[in-house]
Amino acid sequence: MSAQKPLMTFYDIASGPPLRPYAPNPWKARYALNYTNTRYRTSWTSLPDVPSLRQKLGVRACRKHGDGTDFLTLPILYDPSGTSSSSSSFMEQEGTFIGDSFDIAIYLSNKHLSSNGDRPSLFPPNTLALHRTFNAHVDALFSLNGVQLAMHHMPLDPATAETSRVEFARRAGVERWEDLELPMGSEERKEKLAAFEKALGSGLAVWFVRRDEGPFLEGRRVMFADFIVGGWLKMMRNCLPE
Asked: C-alpha distances in angstroms, 225 versus 24, 42, 101, 217?
């Protein structure tokens, strides 16, 4: 009997108790990990500690803030037995760090599904560019219409919540965290919620009713595009009170 491969390590953002995943991009990668039956453990990191963790691991940023500075965020996947040519990976003497949810999905699909007839690849042939475009579309839809509705209800770690709120306010270009709040029952919140529902309907939901065979974009066949949407829906389920 061959020895089991060592566990991969998945770095995710820690919530307040009870500890649970809630951020959209880690959820996209977590779906890919579970779909590919990857053996992994989760290493939880407090939100304010994420930049220093990423720097410590040597994984360069794959995104930028609006002001052009590096956006050092999670997820990161460490495969102690792997190799990768990903633009967001960092090679050690042993193993690979991959620091982007999209690249993690590509890596896992190539590693586990290319020779596994039981489950198809997460990326049907010639769809990588389409997936990247869809990922950007879905991220923009939820970021522009849904994040402000949900952000004041994120399950932040109470021990570091104030630090996180100050950082969110800085990124948004406002002086106070309270300036971003849409109070429950307010007309402003009702209008924002209605706009979000309309955007979901016209910009996303219509694509899930084109096939009758199953619940996914391609009917019964799941692909990473479904996980992109699922990651954001997981965040909304955890953070949206309505």
From this structure: 13, 23, 12, 8
Tokens of 97: 């760090």
Torsion of CA 70, 93, 78, 137, to 10 degrees: 40
Q: Would you state the structure tokens that stand for residue 132, as one six-digit string?
A: 């990247």
Asked, as a colleague might, if the bond just before 24 is cis with ω within 30 of 0, I would say no
Q: What is the pLDDT tens value at each position of the chain, 242 positions in all?
A: 456 778 999 999 999 999 999 999 999 999 999 999 999 999 999 999 999 999 999 999 988 888 888 999 999 999 998 664 444 444 444 789 999 999 999 999 998 876 556 788 999 999 999 999 999 999 999 999 999 999 999 999 999 999 999 999 998 999 999 999 999 999 999 999 999 999 999 989 888 877 778 889 988 889 999 999 999 999 999 998 87
Nearest to 27 by CA among 182, 130, 142, 121: 142
Calculated CA dihedral for residues 34, 24, 128, 111, nearest 10 degrees: -30
Q: Which pairing describes strands 76-79 and 40-45: parallel, antiparallel, or unpaired?
A: unpaired
Strand partners, 76: 11
Phi, psi of 25 (to 5 degrees): -70, -45
Token pair 């999209």 is found at: 102
What is the rounded CA–CA span in Å between residue 239 and residue 160?
Answer: 18
